[in-house]
Target: Ribosomal protein L37
Amino acid sequence: MPRSFHLQKSRCSACGFPSAERGNNWSLKAIRRKTTGTGRMRYLRNVPRRFKTGFREGTQAVPKKAGAGASS
Model:
């Protein structure tokens, strides 16, 4: 039994056993600096808009009726 296992708590301070593996956020600021959205996102920027139409490609927009919305 390793020293990091706390007998009264029944919990390992190193890995968190018996729970899911214990995380450590020592590089959280570094991750934030490098994460998605800190650069151009040339491709990813357009994905939400394309998702709304079901990723349609190569079709022509149907022309609206002439003068329908202009008369007021």
About this structure: The chain has two helices and two strands. The first helix runs from residue 28 to 34. The helical segments are 28-34, 47-52.
